[in-house]
Design a protein that fits this description.
The complex is a heterodimer of chains A (about 240) and B (about 200).
Chain A: E1 2-13, E2 20-31, E3 35-39, H1 46-53, E4 61-66, E5 69-70, H2 76-85, E6 87-91, H3 102-112, H4 117-130, H5 146-158, E7 164-168, H6 176-191, E8 196-201, H7 204-207, E9 212-217, E10 220-224, H8 232-235
Helix pairs in contact in A: 3-4, 3-5, 4-5, 5-6
Chain B: H1 3-11, E1 16-17, H2 18-28, H3 37-49, E2 53-55, E3 66-69, H4 71-82, H5 94-102, H6 110-136, H7 140-173, H8 194-197
Antiparallel strand pairs in B: 1-3, 2-3
The chains are: A alpha/beta (about 240), B mainly alpha (about 200).
């Protein structure tokens, strides 16, 4: 079953001559345990696609399904619950709250969902430890490096029973080594944790971590990568003769 | 890849047999530059002729013959390591040529041509990333070799992005994409600046 499905989703802003088509008839699926990258230049509609997939915006037309359920007709409360419990977001600029420690930032979504601070602390700490940040739990964001901040943000996006990770240029502000580490964590979340991830990026090297890469241009899906052949195809001696 | 210098590097660790050199070469270059056995042994003979290695003089030519590096070989290796390769002229890149040619072909959809190459590059990068993550493990040499390939492919992918943006800009400003500046299609093209005329393409 697809964890996320977009069916013919269009989004436009403004009207008449000022109308801008951010997305046109976009269809996209991401299965359980799958990592999909969406690549495209600035202004191609990547971020709009992600905000609509995350129910933060309504499409002008078309349908979004999460875990097989159409979200278009659900109430605002139901969508908010979906965002608190099922969907995790990772942003380029981390979006950590500066006045909270790493552990408090990670457990915050659970607290917002009604879990007591004391109970929420346990999965929060576990999430940090899973990402190698157990020793940093009591640190504030300004005491962490960029790479550590993004790992905290990923831990926050995964805390609880979340199943869908939406990441908007999650490595954009990081150096190459930290950017690769972030992609490795997101891939692990899918392959080990069974989550589904949709990662928006303009960077081919980061997109290459994904199972499938979808190309977006002028608000339309123009292409996608085929299922890659096994690594043996690149390692056979004949290739070099 | 300079096979002679790779063999000198392996012998700089200490004397080794021919078979050992062949196995270590393959292990250290992460199977990315495979060699056949004969290539190893003929290269060793050439190095011996040039005084860069010595054989133990026992046994027949082949896997069981022992080899060690000479002082001259050590000097040659040190010089080679510090000498940058000649990168002064741009390589003849078939992908680049295809995009440049597509600009002149009236029936070619340049965006579709660019996208076909971009998809292929990303698919290759997906495979290399998988190999690095799942097969390279703690093999630093293999990981470095794959990183080099990933950065090379990434450079081409970035060039395609820049090429597409440039083609779009040229189309918006009017005039054919190849003209490189706004103006009517029949505009007389200015002669190339001197530095462009002199840019040599490696063959």
């Amino acid at each position: 079953m697809s964890m996320l499905e977009l069916r013919g989703v269009s989004k436009s802003y403004g009207q008449g001559d000022a109308e801008v088509h951010a997305l046109r008839e976009v269809s996209l699926t991401a299965g359980e345990g799958e990592m999909v990258a969406v690549m495209g230049p600035s202004g191609s509609g990547k971020s709009t696609l992600l905000t609509i997939a995350g129910t933060l915006e309504e499409p002008t037309s078309g349908e979004v399904l999460i875990a097989g359920q159409p979200v278009g007709k659900t109430s605002r409360n139901a969508k908010a619950r979906l965002r608190r419990r099922v969907i995790g977001y990772v942003f380029q600029d981390f979006n950590l709250l500066p006045g909270l420690t790493a552990a408090e930032n990670v457990s915050l979504p659970l607290e917002l969902d009604g879990v007591s601070a004391r109970k929420a602390r346990v999965p929060g700490l576990r999430g940090l430890e899973r990402l190698g940040l157990g020793q940093r739990a009591a640190h504030y964001p300004d005491q962490l490096s960029g790479g550590e901040r993004q790992r905290v943000a990923i831990a926050r996006a995964m805390v609880g029973e979340r199943r869908l990770l939406l990441a908007d240029e999650p490595s954009g502000a990081l150096d190459s080594a930290n950017a690769q580490a972030v992609m490795r964590l997101l891939l692990d979340a899918c392959k080990v944790g069974g989550m589904t991830a949709v990662v928006v990026t303009h960077d081919a090297q980061l997109a290459s971590w994904a199972d499938r890469v979808v190309f977006l241009r002028d608000g339309q899906v123009t292409d996608q990568t085929a299922v890659a052949p096994g690594p043996e195809s690149l390692l056979t001696p004949e290739r070099n003769q | 890849m300079s096979v002679p210098h790779a063999l000198l590097a392996l012998l700089s660790e200490g004397p080794k047999y021919g078979l050992q050199l062949r196995e270590e070469f393959e292990a250290r270059t992460g199977e990315i530059w495979p060699l056949n056995g004969g290539q190893v042994y003929t290269t060793l003979q050439r190095l011996e002729r040039d005084g860069l290695v010595e054989s133990d003089g026992t046994g027949e030519e082949g896997p069981r013959k022992g080899w060690r590096i000479t002082a001259e070989g050590e000097r040659e290796l040190a010089t080679w390591l510090r000498t940058p390769p000649d990168l002064s002229s741009p390589p003849r890149d078939e992908l680049v040529m295809k995009i440049l040619v597509a600009l002149y072909v009236p029936s070619a959809d340049v965006h579709a041509v660019i996208q076909a190459h971009r998809r292929y590059l990303v698919e290759l990068m997906q495979q290399w990333t998988r190999i690095k993550e799942y097969d390279a493990g703690s093999d630093v040499t293999m990981s470095l070799a794959i990183d080099a390939e990933l950065f090379r492919l990434d450079g081409l992918a970035r060039w395609l992005d820049a090429a597409e943006a440039r083609v779009n800009r040229a189309a918006t400003e009017g005039g054919p994409a190849w003209a490189g500046q706004a103006g009517p299609a029949n505009q007389t093209r200015a002669p190339l600046p001197r530095h462009r005329r002199e840019m040599r393409i490696r063959r």
